[in-house]
Structures are given as C-alpha cells and as structure tokens.
Amino acid sequence: MSLKNICNMSFFLTILCLCVNSLFSHAADTISANQSLSGDQTIVSSGGIFELGFFSPGNSSKYYIGIWYKRIPEKAIVWVANREIPISNKDSAQLRVLDGNLVLLNESQIKIWSTDLTSTASNSSVIAVLLDNGNLILREKSGSNSTLWESFNNPSDTWMPGAKIGYDKRTKRGRFLTSWKNSEDPAPGLFSDEFDPNGTQYVMMWNRSKQYWTSGSWDGHRFSLIPEMGLFRIYNFTYVDNENESYFTFTRTNPSTITRFNMDVSGRVKQRLLMNNESWNVFGSQPRQQCEVYAYCGAFGICNQDSLPFCSCLPGFKIKHDNDWSLMDYSAGCVREISLQCENNGSTSNEKNDKFLMNSNLSLPLRSQLLTSGSIGECEGACLSNCSCSAYAYDGSQCSLWNGELFNLQQLAEGDGSGKDVYVRLSASSSLFVKSKNDKQIVIGSVVGSVVAVLVILAIVFAVVFSRRRLMAGKSKVVEGFLVAFGYKDLQNATKNFSEKLGGGGFGSVYKGTLPDSTVVAVKKLESVSQGEKQFRAEVSTIGIIQHVNLVRLRGFCVQGNNKMLVYDYMQNGSLDSHLFDVKKSNILKWKTRYQIALGVAKGLAYLHENCKNCIIHFDVKPENVLLDNEFCPKVADFGLAKLLGGNFSRVLTTMRGTIGYLAPEWISGVEVTAKADVYSYGMMLFELVSGKRNTTNSEDENVRYFPYWAASVTIEGGDILDLLDPVLEREGDIEEVSNICKVACWCVQGDASVRPSMGQVVQILEGVMDVNLPPLPRWLQVLAETPAHSALYS
Ligand SMILES: *[C@@H]1O[C@H](CO)[C@@H](O)[C@H](O)[C@H]1NC(C)=O
Ligand SMILES: *[C@@H]1O[C@H](CO)[C@@H](O)[C@H](O)[C@H]1NC(C)=O
Ligand SMILES: *[C@@H]1O[C@H](CO)[C@@H](O)[C@H](O)[C@H]1NC(C)=O
Ligand SMILES: *[C@@H]1O[C@H](CO)[C@@H](O)[C@H](O)[C@H]1NC(C)=O
Ligand SMILES: *[C@@H]1O[C@H](CO)[C@@H](O)[C@H](O)[C@H]1NC(C)=O
Ligand SMILES: *[C@@H]1O[C@H](CO)[C@@H](O)[C@H](O)[C@H]1NC(C)=O
Ligand SMILES: *[C@@H]1O[C@H](CO)[C@@H](O)[C@H](O)[C@H]1NC(C)=O
Ligand SMILES: *[C@@H]1O[C@H](CO)[C@@H](O)[C@H](O)[C@H]1NC(C)=O
Ligand SMILES: *[C@@H]1O[C@H](CO)[C@@H](O)[C@H](O)[C@H]1NC(C)=O
Ligand SMILES: *[C@@H]1O[C@H](CO)[C@@H](O)[C@H](O)[C@H]1NC(C)=O
Ligand SMILES: *[C@@H]1O[C@H](CO)[C@@H](O)[C@H](O)[C@H]1NC(C)=O
Ligand SMILES: *[C@@H]1O[C@H](CO)[C@@H](O)[C@H](O)[C@H]1NC(C)=O
C-alpha cells in the first residue's frame, strides 16, 4: 500500500500523514531513491541554513525548484533547477532520483529537467544532499565520497562562498552567472558575468557577445579596476589554475556575515549584505552606474542616469512590451508609435513619408557609416534614401549614419559636452510633426497667449509682493512648505539687532536669537549670495525638505533686498571644534562621545549623499560645521549652501584659510569633484577627533609629527594605537574602536577618490556591521612625510 492510499483512508490518518510529511520535510537534507519532493515539501540542510523545494517568484503562478536561505524573511533564491521550463502544478510534479540522476518530472510525469549524468549507477545507490553552504550535490550513497554532480558547478545568477566561477578545461566550458530574464522569470536573461582566463579577469557580457565591463586583471590580492574591493574584510578571494580547471573562489573572512553576489536583472553584479537577519542591503554594484550596462533599455530606449526609472523611449516611440518593463526587463526596448511605410511593404523609401526629429545630448554606439557630406541636407537625404537608416548626425563636415535598431543610447547631462544632436527617423504622420503643419497659427496663438499670461503673472506677482510687504511690516510670518519666511524686522528683534555673534565664516556670520515664542535660534546672515529672490527661495525650500537627526534643521529664512538670512535650530553645545581644540577641563569629549560623533556625522552625510532625491555634496565638512545639541548628538550644518552660493562657493572655499586642510586633492588637480570629496574631508576630521589637534603643524619644531601620517603608519605597521589618542583622554579609549576609526580615516583620505569608501560604507564599518581591511598608505602622505617643509602646505 502506498503512502497515498493510506492517507485516503480516514481523516485521522490524513492528519497523521501530514505530520509524517512535515516531519520528513523538516528533518531531511537528503533525497534518496524512492523518495520524491512534491507540493510544499522541502529538504533542509543539516544546520538549517538552506532549504530546497518548489517556489514561485513574485506574483507569478509558475513553479520552479530552487534553493533559498531558510531563516531569512526576505526570500533570496540562490539557485534554480528548471530555469527555462516552469511547472504549473507543484502537487503533481516530482523531484526525484532516477537512474543515477536527480530529475524533475512535470505533471504528466515527463522529465523536464535532469542532472544529465551518463553514469551507470543504479537507482538506489545515488542520493542528493543539500549542504549547509547552499550546495546541492549528487553522490554515491555509500563508499566513495566523490561528488557526481553539484549545483555549485552549475550556477544560476548567484555566486556563493565556496563556489567556483571559471573555466573547466576538461569539458571546455565556462561556469558563469546569468541574470534572470525579469524579476519573475528565472530563465537566463541577456546579462552574464564570466571568467576570462586570458586576462585572469571577470567580464560582463550582453547576450554572451558584447563585453560591457571588466574587473581588470587579478594581481593576487585584488582586481585592478575594483580598487575599493580591499575596503571590507569580508571575502578572501583565491585564484586556482591547474590541469583540469581555472577559477576564482572565495571564502568569508567572518562567518557570521552573510553576503551574496548576484548578477541582477539590471545587468549589474550586486553584493548584498544581510541586515538584522531579515533583509538584504546592497552595498556594492558593478558596473557602478546603471547606464554602463550595455543596451539596458533595449532598442530605441534611452538610459538616463539621473532619472528613475532609468529607461524611457525616444520621442515618437512606445514601449514594446509594457508587461516586461513593469518586471524590470527593458531589453525588448521600444518601437515607433507609427511604423515606417518603407518597413511595412518593403517599397523603396519615399521622401515624403518620413521625417527626422532632433534629440539633444545623446551618446550613441559606433555609427554604421561615415560619409563626407557638404551639408546637413545632404546627410539627411543620404539617410532618407535607405529604409534601414534610422538616424543621422552631422558635425559640420562629416555625416554619421546609423542603420537598424539603435542600442545603448544614453541621455547625457546638460553640460556634458560629449553628447550629440541626433536626428531620428519617424513617420511624417507622427504627432510630433503635426503641429509644424500650421506653424503660423500656433506662433500667433502662442504670442497672444503668452502676452496675456505674462500680464496675469505680473498682476499676481504685484499682489503677492504687495501683500507680503504688508505682512512683513506687520511682523507676521508666512509659512512656505516646511519653512517660515521671516521678515527682516523679526530677525533684527530676535537677535537684538545682531548683537550676539556665535561664529563667522566664509559665507557669513551667525547670530543667536530668540523668537517671540522663546525658541532659541541661530540666524546666519549670508554674504556673497548673488541669486535673485525667486531662485533663492527655490533653493532654500529644497534644503528645508531635508530632515535627518544628524543634520541641523533649517526653520526658515529671510529675503528682503540684499539681506538674505537662514534661520536654524540653535545647538546648545556649539560646534565640535570648540570642544576639540579649545579644551577646558569641563568640556573634554570622552572617547565614547567622540565615536558617536564620528558615527552620527557619517550618517548625516550618508543621508545627504544617498537617501535624498538629489545627491547633495556638502563640500565643506570640518569640525566647525558639526554642531552638538544638548546631548552631544552631532548635527551637520551648512549643507546645501554650495547651490545657494553657486559659482561663488568654490572661490570662497578655496581662498578660505583653515579649510584647506580638509580639501580633497581633486579640488586642486581639476578632476571632477564628487561626493567622495566629502569623504576625504570627513577622514581628515576623524584624525582630529582622535588627536584633539588640528592636522597642521604651525609650530617651527621639525619634530612635531604630521598627525595623519603618524596615525596611518601606526595603523598600518602596528604600534601602540592608544598612543595616538588626544593626551587629555589619558589613554582612555577602546583600542578596537580607535583602530577602526584610524583605518576608516586612512581609507577616506586616499588620493584616488574611487578607492575611498562611500559614507554609507563608513556607517556600516563604524556600526560594526562590516569589518574593515588594513588600508594602503595614502601616497600623498608618504610624499608629504618625505618633504621637510610639509607644514607650509597645510597651514
Ligand atoms: C503583486 O501584485 C500586486 C497587485 O498587482 C502588486 O501590488 C505587488 O507589488 C506585486 N508583487 C510583486 C512581488 O510583484
Ligand atoms: C510535460 O512535459 C511534456 C514535455 O515537455 C509536455 O508535452 C507536457 O505537456 C507537459 N505536461 C504538462 C501537464 O504541462
Ligand atoms: C529505476 O527505477 C525506475 C522506476 O522506478 C525503473 O523504471 C528503472 O528501470 C530503474 N533503473 C534501474 C537502473 O534500476
Ligand atoms: C525502492 O522501492 C522498490 C519497490 O517499490 C524496492 O524494491 C527498493 O528496494 C526500494 N529501494 C530503496 C532504496 O528503498
Ligand atoms: C568521506 O568524507 C568524510 C567526511 O568528510 C571523511 O571523514 C571520510 O574519510 C571520507 N571518505 C572517503 C572514502 O574519502
Ligand atoms: C584566449 O587567447 C587565445 C589565444 O590567444 C584565444 O584563442 C582565445 O579565444 C582567447 N580566449 C578568450 C576567452 O578570449
Ligand atoms: C542574442 O544573440 C543571438 C545569437 O547568438 C541572437 O539570435 C539574438 O537575437 C540576440 N538577442 C538580442 C536581443 O539581440
Ligand atoms: C585565504 O584563503 C587561502 C586559501 O584558501 C588561505 O591560504 C589564506 O590563508 C586565506 N587568507 C585569509 C586572510 O584568510
Ligand atoms: C584532474 O582530474 C583528474 C581526473 O579526474 C584527477 O585525477 C586529478 O587529480 C585532477 N587534478 C587536480 C589538480 O585536481
Ligand atoms: C541572527 O541570527 C543568529 C543565529 O540565528 C543570532 O545568533 C544573531 O543574534 C541574530 N542577529 C540579530 C541581529 O538578530
Ligand atoms: C506601400 O508603400 C507605397 C509607397 O509609400 C504606398 O503608396 C502603398 O500604399 C503601400 N502599400 C501598402 C500595402 O501598405
Ligand atoms: C544639452 O546640453 C547643452 C549644454 O551642453 C544644454 O545647454 C542643453 O540644454 C542640453 N539639452 C538638453 C535637451 O538636455
């Protein structure tokens, strides 16, 4: 009597049976002959880490055999068996060992997936075991340990610790990762991460043919084009090359950190880290930018790095398969809203049927054809005469033509000079051209329309300005979004005519003030703001939206004539510099407090860089701009001012004494300044937090060591780490924490911006989520140390 028949006998027995089933599904890590997996049955690795069974991704109603982390609520599928052939009824499908293979039988008991070994093993001697590292293996039940087959050698999209990604010289086959087709379909997609034995490197390929990324070659420790790989102490990569195979594999340095690499549907390899045992956090992606992924948006799609979603269609085109786009598969791209006639019936192109629409600032793949052409008209004619020509560009003497579908288009930012004006072929009946038919009417209409509109707007502006004047004279406040618009008189009164100065700087002085409701505020009188009132208000309100516990809150502003002021929450404990460099017995910052300040500032900056809608670079991170509230919780001040001050900002910054020590080298070298400039300044500030002294040696004494160099040497070469601590702390500090902060500081002040960590990564290290590796000694520190007059540079 089979198990099934027994179950049918009675209700009682059914319950019993369920219990037996669930016992089976929880206890076993093995499928042996005569056992099969159906429905919700699973096997679990012996340590309870991984689970194997049927799953259906997202909202799909299709089922696949997969492996996932058992205890992690956010399900992460690390391997899929039947990637291409799903089943629709998991109760009548079976995963079982048959003829020495592990096979998946569909509802009609037809084999749709198999390990495909041509062994002579009998049914009963082979078993499938799920191991605690996530590897599913097939081996002889008894006797030899040799593994007949393993999922690690047949990876899907995820690279697990211990798995080998490389090249099998015996089968002459690569082992590589392939993306899922979309977020609900594990079938192999267009993107793969492969090993290139010639260069001892990894490459990413589109459709297995077009390379769009490389790791750079392996030097025994890291890949040349992923310098930041050294930052975290998570992985130990090794390269193996023997007569049978060559491959990379890695182990985890800290077994309690759970991370995985996968080739995401986006065509980027993402490193994910498990947070709080429940959700996955992406902490690294290659390529770094989404639009670097070849043809990510498909044919006639445009990738725009500064917008979400990244993909859109060229004007005059529509999404080919809406459903795919909603599942994050953009590869099918776009098609013309109105198809070209010459395409439809194969007739030769008719000049009247098609027109060209200009798209600005596009980057394009290599053109198909280059002609020397006297005029843009000739260039257009050349494209028009050939139905397969879909776009042209003209640069004054040369005419570039593109044939067939356009892939890998990228919308470049304004001011990125490398983009081109590209004319794309559309049907002349496209709605985009229709308006040009009655140009004149439209022109007249719009002129009349805009005159009326201008008059109306002027009237409104007058009314608003007038009423605001009245309001201000009456000391009232206007609330704009999150912010209060103060009148000049209000702030003059609140600050007792600007009598209590809290501080000054390149951007203006700060005064203490008390509002009528007795709230204490800090009023910053801005200097050198040349913006008009409207733009100023717009910028200020974007700053006002930004709120985070580690950022000083902007309460309001005042703009009246040339007076522009910002009103902030008042911070009782002033700025960090006064506690570090101006020490009295009463205000010594204990080590614990310093560590929390370092962490808080990192969180504030990470929020500015990563979480806000538009990345905000602070540009002026220094102890003066870190304020402390009554509980010494740090708040970053003066963010967003770069935009307010526009071009004046960098001039003010670079001519300001004192700030120079915090300026990243790219300010001077002329390389693009990014958020990594803040990371550099933050690193310099960390050194000061440890030493309690400015990173300068104004003293004539040649024996005074330049602290960052000294700290870096002790950190890297070993030494008494507590020796580095501010003398007022009398060596009271946690060695581990001091060492951690010094390592982070060294990583942050690397000359090459790409090697510096992001502020988000700094937070993870300081919170103890990630271990940090020993940093390399920044080259400029080395150079500085060898130059006797180094102090001149940084005073
Ligand atoms: C499933 O569908 C619902 C409704 O259409 C949607 O809100 C939800 O986000 C979908 N879930 C996934 C994982 O796609
Ligand atoms: C099972 O697979 C076979 C072969 O692929 C197919 O012909 C059959 O329709 C499948 N059965 C079901 C119920 O899908
Ligand atoms: C394995 O079992 C299947 C059915 O259970 C049977 O058809 C097949 O002949 C067996 N193979 C061997 C090598 O015993
Ligand atoms: C599998 O079942 C068959 C008959 O159903 C039996 O002869 C064989 O011994 C079983 N094998 C194992 C390994 O239990
Ligand atoms: C099989 O593996 C076990 C544990 O890994 C080991 O102790 C044993 O010696 C191995 N046996 C053979 C025959 O290799
Ligand atoms: C590696 O180099 C050899 C000879 O130089 C060449 O035949 C082979 O195609 C190359 N392999 C790859 C993956 O580029
Ligand atoms: C990918 O390459 C295959 C041939 O290798 C080709 O048939 C297919 O059309 C290509 N896919 C796309 C999306 O271009
Ligand atoms: C990295 O792995 C290799 C080989 O597995 C081992 O020899 C080496 O000691 C490991 N290094 C670290 C830092 O764990
Ligand atoms: C290569 O494969 C052969 C046969 O499978 C095996 O005997 C040998 O030990 C393998 N060499 C290495 C270095 O693993
Ligand atoms: C995560 O789980 C492990 C073991 O399951 C446990 O030891 C650890 O404390 C958990 N960590 C958190 C942050 O919940
Ligand atoms: C084919 O193209 C010609 C020329 O543009 C047009 O007149 C004709 O109507 C088209 N025929 C069909 C069947 O679309
Ligand atoms: C293209 O870039 C130029 C400057 O490089 C800019 O003036 C223009 O507005 C941009 N056009 C679009 C559509 O972004």
Automatic annotation (TrEMBL):
Keyword Kinase: yes
Domain Protein kinase, residue spans: 496-770
Chief location category: membrane
Domain of life assignment: Eukaryota
Protein's recorded name: Receptor-like serine/threonine-protein kinase
UniProt keywords, alphabetically: ATP-binding, Cell membrane, Disulfide bond, Glycoprotein, Kinase, Lectin, Membrane, Nucleotide-binding, Phosphoprotein, Receptor, Serine/threonine-protein kinase, Signal, Transferase, Transmembrane, Transmembrane helix
SUPFAM superfamilies xref list: alpha-D-mannose-specific plant lectins, Protein kinase-like (PK-like)
Catalytic activity: L-threonyl-[protein] + ATP = O-phospho-L-threonyl-[protein] + ADP + H(+); L-seryl-[protein] + ATP = O-phospho-L-seryl-[protein] + ADP + H(+)
Any one of the GO CC terms: plasma membrane
Xref: PROSITE patterns: BULB_LECTIN, PAN, PROTEIN_KINASE_ATP, PROTEIN_KINASE_DOM, PROTEIN_KINASE_ST
Catalytic activity, EC: 2.7.11.1
Biological processes, Gene Ontology terms: recognition of pollen
Bulb-type lectin domain sequence ranges: 28-151
Annotated transmembrane regions: 442-466
GO MF entry, a single one: ATP binding
Native source species: Handroanthus impetiginosus
Signal peptide location: 1-27
Apple domain boundaries: 342-427
Binding site for ATP: K525
Family label: Belongs to the protein kinase superfamily. Ser/Thr protein kinase family.
